[in-house]
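To assess whether ligand presence alters the predicted conformation, the chain was also submitted together with adenosine-5'-diphosphate. Input:
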Amino acid sequence: MINASDKDIVVAANVTKQFGSLKALNDVSLAIPFGAVQCIIGPSGSGKSTLLRCINQLEKIDGGAIWVDGELIGYRRVGDELHELSDAEIARQRLTTGMVFQRFNLFNHMTVLQNIIEGPLTVMKRPRREIVAEGMALLERVGLAEKRDSYPIELSGGQQQRIAIARALAMKPKLMLFDEPTSALDPELVGEVLAVMRDLAASGMTMIVVTHELGFAREVASDVVFMDKGEIVERGAPDAVLVAPQHARTRDFIAAVL
Ligand code: ADP
Ligand code: MG
């Protein structure tokens, strides 16, 4: 059996996920090294979101296994048996990953700074003074320090998404998951969010990015996966998959997106 490895932050081995009779993930295996930017592309309904949601345990898998940062997720091995982890243990494991969604999911009744310090304050129970300083540093990093006292509704979609990224980073994740983070944005706001993601990648953060921004994928990805119908159809270097794909399904998808 494939097992946790020292160089990979995520190892998925023969993962299946069903919704009723639908196989949203069908025997998916994927290893992602520390520091990698793994882009995932594929048509709507191909299982991209489901894969991210399984990696951070928003969904339970039906078959196979996933290791994140060296730990089998969701289960503990006792002899030959697997025992399900408690909710508290799962919550602890989930702290390894931060996630940014297509919709910004900010707390609308809180200011920008409150949004960012909420997790460290209530989940990690860290002292306010310390996390306010860290929160401000994160706001600088995403270029929105002057918005600390604004409410989400006062910000553009691009600004809200940059805050969502800062909020995820405030929990100091080892792995960041992005699920089509620019798909809900007006075209003129896409660039500012991609710029923040590019900086994050350059800083060495390990990232899994589901995106239709093929230019970004080609420039920033260390590796690209094309999924279709719950399966990994093709995987390789960005130029190999995006410019000279081997599979007709990949070619058709890229032609449709461009
Ligand atoms: P993608 O992100 O690539 O568009 P998804 O992972 O969202 O695809 O969905 C994969 C398949 O699983 C789709 O057919 C979708 O309708 C189905 N699916 C996803 N989530 C659920 C759910 N909670 N209940 C039932 N079906 C779901
Ligand atoms: Mg999706």
